[in-house]
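Deliverable D2.4 — example input (structure tokens):
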């Protein structure tokens, strides 16, 4: 367990999502943020029972295995099964509280989000507490509203405007927000599921290893 007398470790990224399936939009966001902020590791944490949305199409064990296959070969990335293994709904505030307890109070944690997820933040359970637990890095996402502070809902802007930093090195263990344009990739898991349901090709939208797993297990196609 973490000691709280806390020697600061290197910054760690946390990439949450349903990953139904994981695709290059997720992977590229994490890779670019890792470079930009100097993250030593990025933990990909598939949601078990996401509280905010309809139940995922695909059982958690498959979503976790697709994440594992997608991350294989990238020493900076690791899959974290804690939400998948939890019987309780996946609240990011609980996951970050647990990571914070393991890592101590001095290590910078960075929650990585696409702009669409970030703009929904005020609907998340105990969302204001997130700023006490981690920094947040937000990537522009094609189709999501602009990342200008005045495009944010007022409560979000109220929290965020005082926390903005121009680069990750200015941040402490938690409480800063970095808005950053990453390579725009207009890829979504929804579009991939729809393509596969029509027996279209999803190649080059996600890693071949993930696509192979999808075909092996007949995910996203009607039997
Ligand atoms: P779905 O279509 O099922 O909602 P998704 O592609 O949006 O899937 P999620 O698992 O919902 O993927 O997203 C996890 C995180 O990744 C969110 O923070 C989301 O904003 C971000 N994200 C997903 N796709 C992209 C993308 N193409 N570019 C930037 N960020 C992305
Ligand atoms: Mg989504």
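Example output (designed residues):
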């Amino acid at each position: 367990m973490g000691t709280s007398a806390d020697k600061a470790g290197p910054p760690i990224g946390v990439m949450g999502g349903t990953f139904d399936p994981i695709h290059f939009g997720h992977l590229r966001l994490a890779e670019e943020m890792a470079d930009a902020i100097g993250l030593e590791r990025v933990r990909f944490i598939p949601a078990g029972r996401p509280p905010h949305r309809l139940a995922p199409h695909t059982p958690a064990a498959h979503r976790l295995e697709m994440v594992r296959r997608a991350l294989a070969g990238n020493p900076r990335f690791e899959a974290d099964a804690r939400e998948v293994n939890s019987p309780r709904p996946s609240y990011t505030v609980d996951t970050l509280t647990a990571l914070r307890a393991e890592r101590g109070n001095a290590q910078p944690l960075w929650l990585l989000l696409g702009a669409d997820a970030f703009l929904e933040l005020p609907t998340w359970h105990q969302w204001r507490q997130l700023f006490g637990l981690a920094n947040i890095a937000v990537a522009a996402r094609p189709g999501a509203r602009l990342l200008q502070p005045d495009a944010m809902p007022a409560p979000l802007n109220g929290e965020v405007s005082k926390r903005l930093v121009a680069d990750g090195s200015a941040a402490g263990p938690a409480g800063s927000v970095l808005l950053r344009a990453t390579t725009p990739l207009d890829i979504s898991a929804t579009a991939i599921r729809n393509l596969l349901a029509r027996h279209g090709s999803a190649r080059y939208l996600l890693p071949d290893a993930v696509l192979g797993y999808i075909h092996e297990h007949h995910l996203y196609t009607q039997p």
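Residues 17-20, 25-26, 29, 113-114, 116-117, 139, 141, 185, 187-190 surround adenosine-5'-triphosphate (ligand 1) (CB under 6 Å).
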